[in-house]
Design brief:
about 110 residues, mainly alpha
Length: about 110
């Protein structure tokens, strides 16, 4: 049986990345909140993978190509989770005249709303 902390780590991996993980049995929605303590470690895993790709690609190609591959790997690993949030923020800050309208735009999943 998988331990509680290991289960929460796997839950954090599943929530924040597209990395293959073992299935969680008897999933409870509150596990996502409880798994937040593991978010920094998941970020380190994603960062280390992207850094390894950057280092390896820089040995073969130009730094620009290596950086592009590393960023693409990070986006692929996370499913564009952070890039989507950045786009929503930019959309809201650029589109709303009032605070309420900006927040409404940020919550809308469509860009340019």
């Amino acid at each position: 049986m998988i331990g509680r902390e290991a289960r929460l780590f796997v839950c954090a991996l599943q929530f924040l990345t597209r990395l293959p993980t073992p299935p969680l049995r008897d999933f409870q929605p509150e596990w996502i909140q409880q798994s937040a303590r593991w978010f920094p470690l998941v970020g380190q895993v994603v960062g280390l993978i992207a850094a390894a790709i950057l280092y390896g690609a820089a040995q073969v190609w130009s730094p620009w190509i290596a950086a592009l591959l590393a960023v693409a790997a990070g986006v692929a690993l996370t499913g564009g989770f952070h890039e989507d949030g950045l786009a929503d923020t930019a959309d809201g800050l650029g589109g709303g005249q009032t605070r309420a309208r900006r927040l409404e735009i940020m919550k809308d999943s469509r860009l340019g709303s």
